[in-house]
Amino acid sequence: MELKDLLYIIIAILIAAAIFQIFAWLLPIIVILVIAFVIYVFISDKY
To answer: Where do the structural domains in the chain lie, given as residue ranges?
Structure first.
C-alpha cells in the first residue's frame, strides 16, 4: 500500500513537472504574440 502511494506521488510529480514545462515553453510565446498584437494595433491606428 505504501509503495503504491509512493508510486502515485511520483506519477503526480512527473505530471505536474510536465505541465510546468509545457507552460514554461508556451508562456514566452503567448507573451510575444500579445506584445506583437499590441504593437500591430498601435501601428494600424497610427496610420
So the answer is: 1-47
